Amino acid sequence: MMFNDGHSIPEPAPRPRRISSTRSSQLMEPFRSIESMSRSRLSIKPFGAFEPMGEIAEVKLIEEPEPPAVDPPPDGGLVAWTQVLMGHLLVINGFGYISSFGFFQAYYATTLNRPASDISWVGSVQMFLLFLIGTFSGRAMDAGFFRSLIVAGCSMQLIGVFATSWSTKYWQLFLAQGITQGLGNGLLFTPTVALVSTYFDKKRTVALGICACGAPIGGVIFPIVCVDPTASRLA
């Protein structure tokens, strides 16, 4: 607006547009939803007293199923002691066979005309494979392959014994009694001890002790069986 003397009055600033109540509620709706989500997620209580971590932990405990109940071992009975007898016989046939190797070493050294240091490799490899294969056969037993281990181990023991009886050279003896017999013993020894221990709690030491006694008993039985009764003791 201009006056005669040249002065002008500035025009008033435009008034801000007034937003209707409906439009304002629409604009505030996202913020309200975010606020409601945060309140429900953090479980805000009056006066700021809230414990979100505790409430989440309580919800998880409620949702998690209870672990299945495990029955205690029978700690006796016909089935449990039958497993002990089975373990005892397997240890006789495995560890007991290795314990009597001193008798076989003297016979092999004389028959094959090889030094005792060469023959001792057969027994050493046999013992080594028993414990080496036992680290894998024990895990296979935990996975549920005990029957397969029994069949494979006993089959390899039989093949090793028969192949040893046919051996006429040192390398044949090493493969038959050292490798084949050692693999069969490794498949049987560790799973047998692990299986017997699952049937006992208070009497577990007695049961495992009976199984372990198969080693010295086998060391006595096999030399007696292998001695030729027709051989003369007089020179």
What gyration radius follows from the Cα positions, in whole Å? 41 Å
What proportion of the residues form beta strands (DSSP E)? Answer: under 5%
Mean pLDDT: 79
Largest sheet: none
The SSE string, one letter per element, is HHHHHHHHH
Number of helical elements:
9
| Shape label | elongated
Task: Please report the total strand number as a whole number.
Answer: 0
- The residue fraction in helices comes out at over 70%
Q: Classify the secondary structure makeup into a structural class.
A: mainly alpha
N- and C-termini, Cα separation: 150 Å
Q: What is the structure about, briefly put?
A:
The chain has 235 residues and is an all-alpha fold. The protein has helices at 21-42, 52-63, 78-99, 101-112, 116-142, 146-166, 170-197, 204-212, 214-226. The N and C termini lie far apart (150 Å).
